[in-house]
């Protein structure tokens, strides 16, 4: 879904580019939303309202993030969840940084070759559909850990809006309805999911109709009253384990009893005086964003400009080298040694740059592993409060509506995160990622992620909160939003809306959105030896949610023209909104 929605709207956006008289506007975009006291940007407008309400009633950004996390589980079932997992990057007003990892983990009965047949071939869709695809969910533990450590509000206060939205229902707008319609073919296959998300005749709900989720409301009420044990040691764990057994899965109640969220040290790096705080393994996101930024720092991107063939070539080469490292070297830190100090060092970036010939396409096949299709759903939200506490959250069911299954009586859509593991070295997953042994399946291991909830600071103060869904492209979407602000002078709305490019080592192609590359640039890149894939009529990807502090663009911040916070939701997010107060 995040791959192709809003294509029409977006095409209109890039056609109108030609009408713009002056730089630095590179993309026609809605004006950023301004707020003096706080800003919430999410992919679903009612969840945004929930977050703003918490801030208005004295909650801090973490309180708002917890309430939004539960609200999205109700109003954004394609990705919002309590049956999945994710990451929260925090940077508090006193400069403290933290990272809460509530990523799903492989069940205790998982084995390295569980998705292979007896000939050693990957069984198509075994890691994507049904109970065998489900990792042990982490969201409830993660949100509670964040609330207990950094929140100021009671759990009951933060769950109340989600409970109300599930119990009383909410009226679908056009965007909400189109997302549900997009999942209908998948949801109809599971009797419980069908009962909840489709009408009695199997048709999807339309705009103006009300979606109620009474079973989910009851589960949320029990979590509100009793905390995470209500989920991990109560009815949901038992019902999911039972349905899993009946559905040829391997989840057990023991998996739920032993799940724990963890706090990790965020990955941090510097780029042109900006300080990046982002996701560490088991995400590849922060490491790869930093590796790419380190390589790019020595190139004159600002002078060359957005979309110039030289800029694209340098970005693609940096992405190529960083993604081969991603796919071969990284994995769950409880299981493997991640070579972070090397991958994050400026010396290593220098080494890589020395191998790049700007203006000449490298060859992915020539790159050695370290030391040796897109779509679907996830969701990102960005929040900042009046004190400057910033929270960046990306969480997911992996594919759109996850594994497409709901255990009877729970109302909880379950993830298909097991597909993020390496089912077999050398065989691509849902996102075309060709990964290695470092990300092999093992009991209680978290699959390698690309989710990159990121906070950027400047001179010790929050500057930008950013992230996106988009599978393997999350990393380049987040990276490009930062470059668009820092190097290309875009305001926050332009930065999240501007057409994107992507390269991930394999397949050895430059993917580009409609209008990302001009005909002249395309011709130059082809001359340089690049294989291109995209353009008008092709897909768009990602749904970035961004906040800038102190101005709508870097120029305004420097000139002191802005005040407070400026937020923007990607126009590719059809149901989303940015709201300040
Ligand atoms: O963790 C990851 O990298 C993936 N499970 C994210 C999936 C995703 O972004 C799907 N949405 N577009």
Question: What do you see in this structure?
Answer:
With 581 residues, this protein is of the alpha+beta class. The chain has a domain at 42-115 and 122-263 and 378-439. It has 20 helices and 19 strands. The chain has helices at residues 7-15, 45-56, 61-75, 139-150, 155-168, 174-187, 191-197, 214-226, 229-232, 235-246, 253-258, 285-296, 301-304, 309-329, 340-343, 346-355, 474-486, 492-497, 519-528, 554-559, and strands spanning 33-35, 39-42, 85-91, 97-102, 170-171, 210-211, 262-264, 267-271, 274-278, 379-384, 390-396, 454-458, 461-466, 501-502, 510-512, 532-534, 545-549, 565-569, 577-580. It has a 7-stranded antiparallel beta sheet with strand order 1-18-17-13-12-9-8. α19 (519-528) links the parallel β15 (510-512) and β16. α2 (45-56) runs antiparallel to α3, α12 crosses α17 (474-486) and α14 packs across α19. The chain is globular, with a radius of gyration of 22 Å. Bound molecules: 6-diazenyl-5-OXO-L-norleucine. The site of 6-diazenyl-5-OXO-L-norleucine has 15 residues, from loops. One of its GO terms (biological process) is glutathione catabolic process. Its EC number is 2.3.2.2, 3.4.19.13. This is Glutathione hydrolase proenzyme.
User: What is the tally of beta strands?
Assistant: 19
Helical content stands at 25-40%
Could you tell me how far the N terminus lies from the C terminus, measured between alpha carbons in angstroms?
30 Å
The radius of gyration computed from the alpha-carbon positions, rounded to a whole number of angstroms, is: 22 Å
Described by the principal axes of the CA atoms, the overall outline is: globular
What's the main sheet like?
A: 7 strands, antiparallel
Structural class comes to alpha+beta
Please state roughly what percent of the residues sit in beta strands, choosing from under 5%, 5-15%, 15-25%, 25-35%, 35-45% or over 45%: 5-15%
Mean pLDDT: 93
InterPro entries: GGT_bact, GGT_CS, GGT_lsub, GGT_peptidase, GGT_ssub_C, Ntn_hydrolases_N
Signal peptide: 1-27
Binding site for L-glutamate: 103, 396-398, 420, 449-450, 471
GO molecular function, one term: leukotriene C4 gamma-glutamyl transferase activity
């Amino acid at each position: 879904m995040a791959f192709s929605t809003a294509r029409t709207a977006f095409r209109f956006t890039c056609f109108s580019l030609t009408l713009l008289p002056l730089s630095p506007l590179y993309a026609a975009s809605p004006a950023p939303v301004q707020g003096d006291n706080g800003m919430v940007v999410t992919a679903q407008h009612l969840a945004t309202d929930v977050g703003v309400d918490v801030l208005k009633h004295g909650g801090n950004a973490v309180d708002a993030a917890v309430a939004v996390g539960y609200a999205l589980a109700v109003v954004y079932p394609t990705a919002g969840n309590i049956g999945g997992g994710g990451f929260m990057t925090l940077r508090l007003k006193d400069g403290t940084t933290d990272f809460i990892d509530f990523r799903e983990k492989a069940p205790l009965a998982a084995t390295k070759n569980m998705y292979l047949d007896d000939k050693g071939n990957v069984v198509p869709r075994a890691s994507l559909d049904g109970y065998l695809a489900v990792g042990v969910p982490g969201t409830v533990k993660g949100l509670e850990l964040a609330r207990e450590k950094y929140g100021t509000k009671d759990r009951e206060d933060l769950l109340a809006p989600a409970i109300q939205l599930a119990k009383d229902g909410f009226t679908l707008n056009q965007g909400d309805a189109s997302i549900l319609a997009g999942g209908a073919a998948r949801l109809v296959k599971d009797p419980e999911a069908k009962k909840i998300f489709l009408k009695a005749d199997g048709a999807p709900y339309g705009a103006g109709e009300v979606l109620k989720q009474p079973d989910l409301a009851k589960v949320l009420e029990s979590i509100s009253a009793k905390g995470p044990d209500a989920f991990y040691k109560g009815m949901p764990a038992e019902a999911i384990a039972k349905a899993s057994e009946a559905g040829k899965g391997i989840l057990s109640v023991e998996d739920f009893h032993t799940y724990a969220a963890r706090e990790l040290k965020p990955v941090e790096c510097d780029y042109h005086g900006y300080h990046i705080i982002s996701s560490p393994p088991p995400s590849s996101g922060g490491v790869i964003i930093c590796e790419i930024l380190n390589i790019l720092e020595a190139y004159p991107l600002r002078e060359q400009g957005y979309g110039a063939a030289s800029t694209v070539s340098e970005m693609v080469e940096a992405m190529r080298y960083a993604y081969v490292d991603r796919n071969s070297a990284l994995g769950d830190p409880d299981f493997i040694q991640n070579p972070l100090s090397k991958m994050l060092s400026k010396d290593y970036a220098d080494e890589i740059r020395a191998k790049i010939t700007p203006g000449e396409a490298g060859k992915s096949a020539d790159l050695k592993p370290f030391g040796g299709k897109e779509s679907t759903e996830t969701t990102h939200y960005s929040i900042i409060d009046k004190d400057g506490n910033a929270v960046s959250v990306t969480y997911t069911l992996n594919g759109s509506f996850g594994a497409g299954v709901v255990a009877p009586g729970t109302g909880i859509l379950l993830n298909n995160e097991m597909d993020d593991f390496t089912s077999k070295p050398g065989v691509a997953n849902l996102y075309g990622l060709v990964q290695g042994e470092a990300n092999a399946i093992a009991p209680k291991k978290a699959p390698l992620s690309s989710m990159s909830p990121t906070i950027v600071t400047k001179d010790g103060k929050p500057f930008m909160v950013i992230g996106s869904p988009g599978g393997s492209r999350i990393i380049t979407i987040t990276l490009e939003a930062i470059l668009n602000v820092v190097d290309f002078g875009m305001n926050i709305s332009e930065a999240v809306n501007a057409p994107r490019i992507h390269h991930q080592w394999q397949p050895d192609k430059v993917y580009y959105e409609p209008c990302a590359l001009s005909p002249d640039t395309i011709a130059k890149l082809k001359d340089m030896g690049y294989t291109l894939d995209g353009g008008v009529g092709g897909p768009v990807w990602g749904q970035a949610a961004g906040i800038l502090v102190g101005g709508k663009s870097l120029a305004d911040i420097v000139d002191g023209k802005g005040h407070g916070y400026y937020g923007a939701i990607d126009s590719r997010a059809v149901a989303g909104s940015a709201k300040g107060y």
